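Students often ask why we bother predicting the structure of a whole assembly rather than each chain alone. The short answer is interfaces. A chain on its own may look different once its partners are present, and contacts between molecules only exist in the joint model. In this exercise we take two input lines together and write out one structure for the complete complex. Read the inputs first and try to guess which parts will touch.
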Amino acid sequence: MAEKLIGTDIAPPDLIAKITGRARYSEDFRPDNMVFAKLLLSPMPHCRVRGVDATRALAMEGVIGILRAEEVPSREGPREACLTDEPHYEGEPVLAIAAITEEIAADAIEAIDVDFEPLPFVLDPLDSLRPGGPTAYTDGNRFARAPDAEQGDGPVWSDFKWTEADFAEIDAGRMPSDAVAISNWDKGDVDAAFAEADLILEEEIVHQSVTHHPMEPRTNMAYWENGKLFAHVSTQSAQRTKAAVAGAVGIDQEDVVLIAPYCGGGFGSKIAGTTPMQIPAIFSRKINRPVMLRITRYEENYVGRARPGFQAWVKMGFRSDGKCIGIDLFIVEEGGAYGSGDNGTAGAIADLIYTPENMRFRAVSMYTNTPPKAAQRGPGGAQIVSMLEPILAKAGRELEVDALQMRLINAPDPDVAFGPRGSTLTSVHAKEALEQGAELFDWAGKQALSGRREGTKVTGIGVALSPYTAGSRGFDGLMVIRPDGKLYVHQGIGNLGTHSISDTARPAAEILGLNWDQVEIVWGDSSRGMPRSSVQAGSQTMHAHTRANHAAATDAARKIRQIAAQSLGGSPGDYVLDNGRVFRRGGGAGMSFAQVAERAIQMGGEYDGHELPDDIHRETVPAATMLAGEGLMGVAKDNYGGRGGVYTFVAGFAQVELDVETGVVDIKEFVGVTDCGTVVHPRSLGAQLFGGCIQGMGMAMTQKWVYDPKYGVAFANRLYTARPPGFLDIPLNMKWAAVGIADPQTPVGAKGIGEPPVGAGAAALTTAIADAMGTCLCRTPLTPDIILSELEGRDPAFGRLDQHVG
Amino acid sequence: MGDAESVGLLEKKYSRRSFIKGVIAVGATASSTGYLLGGAQALGAQMPGATERLITLNINGQDRRVDVLPHETLAMTLRYRLNMTGTKFGCDRAECGACTVLVDGVNHYGCSMLTHQVRGRAVTTIEGLENPDTGELSIVQQAVLEQGGFQCAFCAPGFIMSMEAMIRVNPNPTREEAAHALSGNLCRCADYDKILTCAMRAAELARSV
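Now the answer. The structure tokens for the assembled complex follow.
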């Protein structure tokens, strides 16, 4: 019998390359004649370029050329171009210089005289809502279709403002709960729920913006050859990035060769590539030489992306048994220079984890002159979970209901319907995750530790539940069994370190009865053939591509059996596949896969990919056509279907020690348990779970943006000023487990894991700190000064609703 | 302060020159010094040549003659002159450890050492860990492979070099000691638990040799 692959630890096939330095990321390629581009970044949060004098720069020895904003694609409205003459955030690229060395390029940038006209700017979305307050764009702060727009009218600029009365509230540190929103939905009767409630809690919330800061900055290199663009992109995805590059440069996607075998992390900031990837592509076409754009950490801080911050207000009503019966949530979101929409997911997830019968959701997202915002691991969900879970625990303290009991009574059941459209889910085992986690953490035993003081240290314990979307459907699988007898699984997803590039191929090997060493993964280079794939984001790939590869392998298995029956007699159903062979059940004649591949090539037609299924995506066709005739082809669309959203849940448990004299928090223990369906790769799952939770801990504790309010420039602009967690910031004895109940609507049973751990790590910490403090502080990061001012009853050094402060 | 005044200050504070200096300070400046020899020569011609440029470095047990600018960092020399791209730039400024190499067996940030500082010293990079005759992985690499270490792995070369240094100094660490030994390296995927398991396994293998 071929080995069992699902549920076992197998190192990914690229690991040797990664640990020997042979793995090549975008900055590691060196084509002949390569030159370096360097960017001129805006020194101001909002300004206009009145004039550029590059005479001295262009006269320097070694300088090859300049690329200006008018040479790159741009669109009307608040839409990002890779270079601009009206920067909307400090650090936005204005122009690029290419030179034979990076240092000459940098010197040339310094020799350019730019006349910048400073323009009004806004950092805090509330300031943009204030009557007479500044707006991030010269023409307003809202770009939308007018209420009285005729059909065919596009969006227009307008000014969206709150009232003086609203700001009297804000100036007193309260969010105006009846201010006008841009997005809203509701269900049930939230006012009636509050009238019935035994306990009502109201809190102001401030969640900071957090930079993604993947280890590899978004460095890109590109060149043109025979009319084709060779793009070396740091990207989370692959096949979908190819289309994004083509669209940005204005060419057919078949004229792009995307080379992205490795990606040094993205966390949502490099989903289908990045904006700066356009610069080497366009510049290299202009100067006809390969262009490397190395992004430094300092530049990454600006042109990389950030999670949007929230300033919010929430009112939650509870019954005396702890059940939440009503939520009124109002979110103001910091949209950055080009907008963001995390708030919608935040509202839906609040509904999902507290299951109130009654909810009102309202939100406003405002453009600000801060670096662009993007999805960051658990976008919207991570913020709202880490802010609301301490309120749940606080309600438990007031109602004298145990925090775990509070969590369980409010957790969703499999029949949950949530959000503005009453969404349903394929599988929900949140309560099992909470119960399993409570046991692993010894929640009952740890009750005695809650609030215990030893010297200056007080212990707190916390529990949190974090869900997020974890799957999608309908993509294609493509694979070939070649005459060497091996299965080549062509992956169109990216390789950003989640190991899904190989783990999603395991079902194919199992269906075809192959051992893992009989399988080759083909990835990272679009010229080798990539099927239409999901973007490598939103925790989709484990679900989406175990399905797609399952479908394609099933197609291959059918063809193998048909070939065997034709060659050896009997009917296809008589044949079994095992260990690289197809043979008659109960013994008898058989063929090796190598022979089957040869036979498939001879037979042609659908067997070797000369005829393709009608329902595969048009973007799969060129790849499959290119591979036709090379062996037996398995190619199919995922038609397994399904009803409802695919969500994974993570329950997080933390124990902390808070030093009440210094405000420093020490994380002593952490447990994470997930409901993510069938476990495909246990060790990698644990790593994703811990990694996400630790990223959440960094969000809860240390990472932030700080701006000079006078000039609008960032003070926190490197790793050390907004530090992600290192080895000394985390507990060394973290534990994880998985519920392991298969999702019934997908053939392999697996759901994704990337997103939900972030909220679980952050929220377990915010609840544990709240437990140690005996109150809750709905503000992150929970730095020592913020904790101390709360403990000592002092006003902090900034307004309660202020963003971007030290 | 009036608007016009603050705008004036803003322009003064962020003149092109001072701004760009800030951007390219240390790392970027040094790192941009010549991927091509022609570039380095062009640049060198502008400098009064006080420092010898053509020097011999001992990298992974081999002597390499290399043309190096006085302000060039070791990480830059490795990546852009010797084409040894295993050593990564994560931050250019001693914040992340992705560029960690061994100098006389001690782990150092390659972005924060001048290449001239390592003349006459033995430099080991990630490319030099395998046995040159047999291709066998080093003990640390074997441990990482066995334990499935790292996710995106952009930090991996740096961490592995720090592990190599650790097992030389302390082949019998506790998990806390190993975490301290590796605390100069950052993993943004936060695969710390598995990295620590790899380090402990590497130490165990080192003790059994």
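Check your guess against this: The beta strands of chain B are 54-59, 62-67, 100-103, 106-109, 122-124.
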